Amino acid sequence: MAQKKFVVGCFDDEAVLFPAVRQVRAAGYKIKDVYTPFAVHGLDHALGMRETSLHTAGFIYGITGTTTAISAISWIFTKDWPLNIGGKPHFALPAWIPIIFELTVLFAAVGMVLTFCYLCQLAPGVKKHRFHNRATDDLFVMVIECSDKTNTDDLKALLSANGALETNVQIAEEGWWFGTYDNDNEDLYNNKQLA
Amino acid sequence: MASIKEQFEIPGKLKTWSYALIGVGAVALLYGMFTKGFSTDEHEQVHFWGTLMYNTIFWTLICNAAMFFLCFSTMAQAAWIQSFRRIAEAISTLVPVFGAITFAVLIYVVVSDKHHIYHWLDVEAVAKDPILRGKTGFLNPTFFIIWTTLAIVLWSYFGYRMRQLSNEADVAPMDAATAKAFNIKSMVRSGFFLVWFGLTVASTIPWLWLMSIDAHWYSTMYSWYTFASSFVAGMSLIAVWLIYMKNKGYMELSNSEHLHDVAKFMFAFSIFWTYLWFSQYMLIWYANIPEEVVYFKHRVQGPYKPIFFLNLIINFLAPLIILMKRSAKRNFTLVAFMAVLIMFGHWIDFYQMVMGSLMKEHVSLGWLDFGVLSFFVGVMILMVARALASKPLIAKYHPFLKESVIHHT
Q: What is the pLDDT of residues B206-245, one digit of tens each?
């Protein structure tokens, strides 16, 4: 549970957001994330995030599924319980391919969903600080992490100069916590702010 | 947009190469025609006309796949294709050319009663054969000629109409109402092509042209298998031309994002082709009924075994392993290599589909096949380059062009 100080800037236009992201990064600030109501193409690139390794994980899960299927079926049908099915050889590869395929897909799909939830810290009861509730509605919310030396007023001025409609400073939990929001009854549109 | 090169000038080297390929191909074609095609030996005749058949059908179908690609993208209002749509259009201009060659070859085969190629042409054999008698409503020369004519003429015509419409995007900027009308008109015209494509390439035409070589045998997967084969090769052909044009400094508006999506089609439809290949094979293998197994017997266990498995390696394993990674699909060199490999692979696929049924005893892959291939490749290169040079390379007032320029995968 580490509390940190963040500067938050809200934008309502992608065309304004992208130059602003570039300006803020060029000025040397560290952007924690930009929360958007929908997936914005190219934003990950503009933020300088690395490629996700989710697909590599998916490949490994898929290969695991393939291996599991091949070893299980071949052991069952050739060693454990050989059956004569329609006069086919015990090692009847073409007949197994649908099952091998299905198990590959099953492992890859379930594995990737779980990995995605792990990477994004998504689980029942897992809570994260909401920087601005309209991030799920109509605002692009840029969150910048402050260091000891950050001058929040300068940063707010920079954001406003680059088209932010609203800026504020928040002290908030950086990661996730398990439980509830402390201020669930508070007006959702009225974030805990620190001037 | 001022810096965009809109006019393609055919490089001298390209012309030289295509003339050389056509020259080599024409020599092989003529030599083959007189020594084999018109020889008295039926075996030689089958060899020559079979080779010509699979080559010309292959090239007609993959050029038609380019128009199919344009039409279904238009129907789905897919904007990303607009930056290189003129390449697909240029490839589709070959449908009437290759279609005419296909028409000539097939009509010759049917009219001159080559029942060693199409067994159902043999009137006496059909009269004694209850299975073939049951198929005479579909497999008869009259229907064959009418349907073949209709197919080729209408592919060419609907394709021509689509290309004509695309010219309108060169004239002047469109306001919202004009752009909307243009969009609806494009969708209607592509609809005509798509419906006819479904009735021909995706169903009847492969039955008629290719599957009827094995007159007794049938497979419900066959048309889709042929379609998948020609479509993935057609996407590869588009990729090759896109990369060539980029390499020559044209097509500035297309970048690795567009290549990525083209390569996705190559990857996805290689898998789709394998799915159909496997579905066709597995059911026949499992049921093991003699009249069905007859198609695979000499392919899997006979002389065609190396080609049969080479086909699977080139068209399934290679794209699966090499094109799977995102970085591979965005790499121009690698996609160019894979596109040529896939086209070669599906040419081999068409080879075994036709020649595997016509010459069961031995594999004849040799100078005639590569000679005829060289003729078609030469004609394709020359005609596509000419078609590209005849129009601006960018449909610059197309309503979807901007969306294509900022395309991001």
A: 999 999 999 999 998 999 999 999 999 999 999 999 999 9
B326 within domain boundaries: yes
Mutate to test the interface with A, among B271, B284, B286, B317 (most CBs of A within 10 A): B286
CA distance B271 to B279: 12
Q: Can you list the pairs that B71-75 forms with residues at least 24 positions away whose Cβ atoms lie under 8 Å?
A: B71/B162, B71/B190, B71/B191, B71/B193, B71/B194, B71/B197, B72/B190, B72/B194, B74/B162, B74/B186, B74/B187, B74/B190, B75/B187, B75/B190, B75/B191, B75/B194
Question: What is the strand order of the sheet A3-11 is part of?
Answer: A30-35, A140-145, A3-11, A166-173
**Chain B residues within 8 A of A51 when measuring between CB atoms:** 326
Could B282 and A59 be called an inter-chain contact, meaning their C-beta atoms sit closer than 8 Å? Answer: no
**Which chain A residues contact residue B282 at CB under 8 A?**
94-95, 97-98
Q: Is B3 on the interface with A (CB under 8 A)?
A: no
Give residue B397's domain range: 12-405
Among A42, A51, A97, whose Cβ lies nearest the Cβ of B282? A97
Cα–Cα–Cα angle for B262, B369, B13, rounded to 5 degrees? 60
B395 domain residue, yes or no: yes
* Averaged pLDDT for residues B103-114: 94
Query: What is the pLDDT at residue A115?
Result: 96
Residue B7 lies in a domain: no
Q: For residues B265 and B257, what is the distance between their CA atoms, to the nearest angstrom?
A: 13
- pLDDT score of A189: 44
Q: Is B135 helix (H, G, I), strand (E, B) or coil?
A: coil
Give chain A's residues under pLDDT 70: 1, 182-195
Gap from B94 CA to chain A (nearest CA, Å)? 37
Domain count, chain B: 1
Pairing outcome for strands A30-35 and A166-173: unpaired
- Contact A41/B278, CB-based, under 8 Å? no
Position with higher pLDDT, A188 vs B363: B363
Residue B3 resides in a domain? no
With beta carbons less than 8 A apart as the criterion, state whether B25 and B374 touch: yes
Segment B317-326 shows an average pLDDT of: 94
Distances (CA, A) of A95 to B195, B202, B283: 35, 27, 9
Entry pTM: 0.89
Per-residue pLDDT, A194: 43
Residue intervals of chain A classified under CATH 3.30.70.260 are: 3-51+125-178
Residue keyed to tokens 């509390």: A3
Tell me the torsion sign for CA atoms B154, B155, B160, B163.
Answer: positive
Specify the residue for token string 């060539």: B244
Please check whether residue B333 touches A, CB under 8 A: no
Mean pLDDT of B182-202: 95
Nearest residue on chain A to B287, alpha-carbon basis: A86
- Mean pLDDT score of chain B: 93
Query: What would the CATH number be for the domain defined by A3-51+125-178?
Result: 3.30.70.260
| Nearest beta carbon to residue B286 from set A41, A42, A95 | A95
> Residue A184 has what pLDDT?
52
Q: What is the dihedral of CA B329, B335, B340, B345, to 10 degrees?
A: -30
With CB atoms and an 8 Å threshold, state whether B324 touches A59: yes
- Answer whether A41 sits within 8 Å of B408, measured CB to CB: yes
Residue B106 in tokens: 């097939």
Assess A55–B contact: CB distance below 8 Å, yes or no: yes
